[in-house]
Amino acid sequence: MSAAYSKGARDVTTLAASAKGSFLDGVSYLRQLGAAKLLLLIALTGLLIGTSPETRGIIFASLADAYLAVSVFVAATLGAIYYLEHKLDVDVAGLLRKYHRWQVPVAAALGALPGCGGAVAVVTQYVRGSISFGSLVAVLAATMGDAAFLLLAAEPTTGLLVFVLGFVVGSITGHVIDWIHGVDFLRADHPELPDQVARKPLPRLNKLRPVWAILLVPGLLLGILDLLQVDTDALFGPLAAFGPTEIIGVTGALLAFAMWTLDPELRFDPGVSRAGGAFTRTVDATNFVTVWVIVGFLVYELGVHFSGIDLAQLFDTYAPLIPLLAVLVGFLPGCGPQIVVTSLYITGAMPLSGQLANAISNDGDALFPALAIAPKAAAVATIYSGIPALIVGYGTYLFWG
User: Fold this and answer.
1) Which portions of this protein are annotated as coiled-coil regions (predicted)?
2) What is the domain count for the chain?
3) 11 inside domain
4) Chain centroid to CA 37: how far?
5) Quick check: is 379 in a domain?
6) What CA–CA distances, in Å, run from 243 to 231, 299, 306?
C-alpha cells in the first residue's frame, strides 16, 4: 500500500512538474512573440468569435479579398524578384565602391526596387561609413518598402509611376543634400560593423510552407480570373453554392496570418534577409505583407460598417491635410503602417496625393539598422526625406486632387 502510494505521489509530482514546465514554456513562447503579435492574434480572434454573423461576413470577405486580390500577386512578384536576385547575386557594396561618383543614383535605384532588401543593403553601407549622407537620404526617399508590392499587385501602372518617381526624387534630393552639407556630413565610421546588421537569423523550418505553396496555385488562378471579372464560383459547379472562392481566400489569408504571427523569430519583414533561399524569403515576406494588408482592409471595412462614415468622403472633406498626415505616418519605421496607408488608397479611401507623399516619406524596414547604429543620422535623414514628400504630395493635390 505504501509502495503504491509512493509511486502515485511520484507520478503526481512528475505530472505537476511537467505541467509547470509546459506552462513556463508557454509563457516564454508568448513573451518571444512580442506584444504586437499577441495584440494582432487577440484582435482577430476576438473579431471572429465575438461579433455578429453580419460582421463576420464582412471580416471573411475582407480576408478573402486580402489574399486573392493582393497576397497571391505579391507572392508571384516576390518570387520572381528573389529568384533573380539569387541568380544574379548582386553585390551592393561592390557596386557602391566601384561607382563612387554614382553613389547617390545607385542608392536611389536600389531603394526604388520593391521591398526593403536593396534599401537595407545601402543603409548597411552607410553605417559602415562607405557612402555619403546624401546617398542615405536618397535611398530613404526612394524606397517604398513592402507597400510597393501591394501597390504593384493592385495598380501596376501606379506602382511603376511610384518607382520612377522615387528614383528621380531620391536622386535629386541626395545630390542637393551632398551639395549643401558635403559628402562627409554626419558620415558614420563603423568599418568593423558585421554583416548581420542587415540580416536576421534564418527562421526555423516551417512545415506549413508546402501547404502554403499548394494553396497559392489555385489562389493565384482565382485572383487572375477575378481581375478578368469571371464568376469564379461558377467554375466549381454544384459546389458554387458554398462560396468556394471565398473559402480558399479566407483559408489562404488565415494561413499566412498564423504563419507570421505565431513564429517568434519573424520580428520584422524577413524578406530583407538573403538567408534561406528565394522560396523561404517569398513565403515569409508575403505572409508579413498579408498580415498588414488584412489589418488595412479590416480597419477600412469595419470602420465604415460600425461608424457609418464613408472614409473616402471624409478624406475628401479634409483633403488638404491628407499629404501632411501621410508624411507623418511615413516617418514611422517599419512597413506595417505604410501598407495600411496603401490599402486605404487601393480601396479608394486615400487620394493619390496621400499615397505619393507616404511613398516618398516612408523608409520601410531600412530605417531599423540606421536607428540602431547611427540614430542621429537616421533621424535627420528621415526628416529630410519628408521635404520632397510634402512637395510631391501637395503638388499632386493641387493638380489632381
Assistant:
1) none
2) 1
3) no
4) 14
5) yes
6) 11, 24, 25
How far apart (Å, rounded) are the C-alpha atoms in residues 294 and 296?
5
C-alpha cell at 37: 503579435
- Spatial separation of the C-alpha atoms in residues 96 and 239, rounded to whole Å: 56
pLDDT greater than 60 at residue 10 = no
| SS3 assignment for 269-297 | CHHHCCCCHHHHHHHHHHHHHHHHHHHHH
Q: What is the pTM assigned to this prediction?
A: 0.67
| Structural Rg of the chain based on CA atoms | 24
Whether 244 is covered by a domain: the verdict is yes
Domain assignment present for 18: no
Q: What is the pLDDT of residues 312-368, one digit of tens each?
A: 677 777 888 899 988 988 887 767 778 888 888 888 888 899 999 999 998 877 776
Q: What digits encode the pLDDT tens for the residues 185-219?
A: 776 555 444 444 444 444 444 678 899 999 999 99
Domain that holds residue 95: 33-400
Q: What are phi and psi of 334, to 5 degrees?
A: 95, 165
